[in-house]
Design brief:
single chain; 123 residues; alpha+beta; Glutaredoxin; 4-stranded mixed sheet; 6 helices; 4 strands; 20% strand
């Protein structure tokens, strides 16, 4: 079966500005800020090597945005619910992982990547 997913889109619960990045980094270290998608894709300072490898193996792009730089159609679909992962299909956008679902991976990047692979197979 061929998937009709043409792109995955992840939107972080953080802003892409320098102040936003610094605020998030400090807040995450102090335990006052948390983004379950960031936990899956990023280490202390940069994107996880494991995530880069997993994302490259998906077979469709996995594009990420911050809540302040996501495309308008993505923001409209999310209606302020960050973080999340959406699938863009030939029929449009749909939210496939909410914050609660992302938290369920408990930071396990391999499990997250496997879920995405399985989604592609079953969609």
């Amino acid at each position: 079966m061929t998937s009709n997913v043409v792109e995955f889109i992840g939107v972080y619960d953080a802003d892409s500005t320098l102040l936003g990045e610094i605020s998030y980094w400090i807040g995450a270290r102090l335990g006052t800020t948390h983004c379950s998608l960031c936990e899956l894709t990023h280490g202390l300072f940069t994107e996880k090597r494991e995530w880069k490898e997993c994302a490259a193996d998906l077979g469709v792009p996995f594009n990420t945005f911050h809540r302040n730089d996501a495309p308008d159609d993505v923001l409209a679909s999310l209606n302020g619910s960050f973080p999340a992962v959406l699938a863009r299909t030939t029929a449009g956008l749909s939210i496939i992982l909410t914050n609660q679902a992302l938290q369920g991976f408990s930071g396990n990047t391999a499990d997250f990547a496997q879920w995405l692979s399985d989604y592609l197979i079953n969609s």
